[in-house]
From TrEMBL:
Residues 178-266 form the DUF559 domain. It comes from the Bacteria. It comes from Gordonia aquimaris. InterPro entries: DUF559, Restrct_endonuc-II-like. It holds the Pfam family DUF559. This is DUF559 domain-containing protein.
Length: 292
């Protein structure tokens, strides 16, 4: 029997046949409980990924945000549902509310988990504007696709959706960084991403000359004592050099943003971000040469 781990433990009969698996092989695998039938033409191993099993058993394949996450894309976690794409026949059977829709023509079910391109096209209808930019930033940052690929995949979407790509910079290493950058930019704040600061290192965001924003990327971010100590020393060094650091947890960004935003905007209103950094002894201006 073929190895199907790369299919997340779920495989179609057409895929099995392409690997020279016969009907006799399939029946034996089912008798030995190495495979079980999910629906007509689709089978799963005992250790198959639970989300993939749910998607295929529901009548489709894993797609949209669920598939993007499996491909390594940072996706917003405000929804816990399994995102499923199905053929047109499933929609005609009155189950359209269960499935994700995409812009453009429908595509065949090739494997149990959609490739990143197909998953992205369907995510465009499941995400709000911020979420689309978050996903695009993550794809670009991880070099999973090029910007021209995203432009092509968004070609069938409305112009308003296509223009969101202009708000991506591909520098953010997490979705929470993109969220904070976008929200501050909407307030008229100029923000730079992933800035290298001498003596401090690379920071997530920098406002003006001296306001550093550092952001946790994960919902359940359990930093070790060593990591916390490293962060503390880094913040101390930044303070010594004249910088102001604001650290934001995942919860602060996703659930308590109003308070976090107020803190940052108060600093900006007081022009803390524009104050000059200490430079040690002032350089003496060179005297002008005597006339004549």
């Amino acid at each position: 029997m073929m190895e199907i781990d790369e299919h997340y433990g779920v495989v179609s009969w057409s895929e099995l046949r392409s690997r020279a698996v016969t009907l006799a092989h399939l029946r034996r695998a089912m008798r030995e409980e190495k495979l079980r039938r999910l629906r007509r033409g689709w089978y799963a191993t005992p250790t198959a990924d639970a989300m993939v099993v749910e998607a295929v058993a529901a009548g489709g394949v894993l797609s949209c945000l669920s598939a993007l996450k499996l491909h390594g894309v940072w996706v917003p976690t405000h929804t816990k549902k399994v995102h499923v794409r199905a053929r047109e026949s499933a929609h005609r059977q009155g189950r359209s509310g269960r499935f994700c829709l995409g812009y453009g023509s429908p595509e065949p079910e090739v494997s149990a988990v959609d490739d990143i391109r197909t998953a992205f096209r369907h995510a465009l209808k499941c995400l709000d504007d911020e979420g689309i930019v978050v996903v695009c930033d993550s794809i670009l940052n991880k070099a999973l696709l090029e910007r021209c690929d995203l432009e092509s995949l968004m070609a069938s979407a409305p112009r308003r959706i296509r223009r969101l790509l202009d708000r991506c910079d591909g520098k953010a290493e997490s979705g929470t960084e993109t969220m904070v950058r976008l929200r501050l930019q909407l307030k008229g704040v100029t923000v730079r991403s992933q800035v290298q600061i001498a003596g401090v290192g690379r920071v997530d965001l920098l406002i003006g000359t001296r306001l550093i924003i550092e952001i946790d990327s994960e919902e359940f971010h359990d930093r070790s004592a060593e990591q916390r100590e490293r962060d503390r020393r880094r913040d101390e060094e930044a303070t010594r050099l004249g910088y102001v650091t604001v650290r934001l947890s995942y919860k602060r960004v996703v659930e308590e943003w109003a308070e976090a935003e107020r803190t940052i905007l108060d600093l900006v209103r007081r022009r803390e971000h524009r104050k000059k950094l200490p430079t040690g002894r002032r350089r003496r201006r060179r005297a002008s040469p005597p006339a004549g």
